[in-house]
Amino acid sequence: TEHVIKNIQWITGNNFTVERGQQQIEEAISTWEVHESWLHWSEFLQEEELENSKRYHYRVCWSVPTRRKPIPRATASVYFVIEISKIKPATSPAEIFFTLESSRLIHRLEQCLFREKWLKDIIENKIILMERL
């Protein structure tokens, strides 16, 4: 079923800036149902020029710091791409996709219900791997 993120006015190609793209990502993830103990920070990574579009790549890094361990043992990254079409009218909304660091599956932001379990799984798998090494 389609998941619609409400109350977000998606940026259009003619209004896009790297900073505004990052704000849109922050707005979108604020609608995700994750426990308040999760903290995150986001950053712009790069711009990619394609024949029919421009892609802007961002990373949002998640962790759960605690009093006992203020520096978490592992983090989980979610990578976002905002794609601005060169073919569609400049007033068309941007397309926003995301992938998890441990996956190749590309999620369309407005059609996917984010699951906190995905972040937990990434961190648990990293901790297991570190303990084995």
TrEMBL record:
GO molecular function term, any single one: protein kinase A regulatory subunit binding
Superkingdom per UniProt: Eukaryota
Entry GO terms, CC: cAMP-dependent protein kinase complex
InterPro entries according to UniProt: AKAP, AKAP_28
PANTHER family in UniProt: A-KINASE ANCHOR PROTEIN 14
Name of protein: AKA14 protein
Organism: Chloroceryle aenea
Gene name, Swiss-Prot/TrEMBL: Akap14
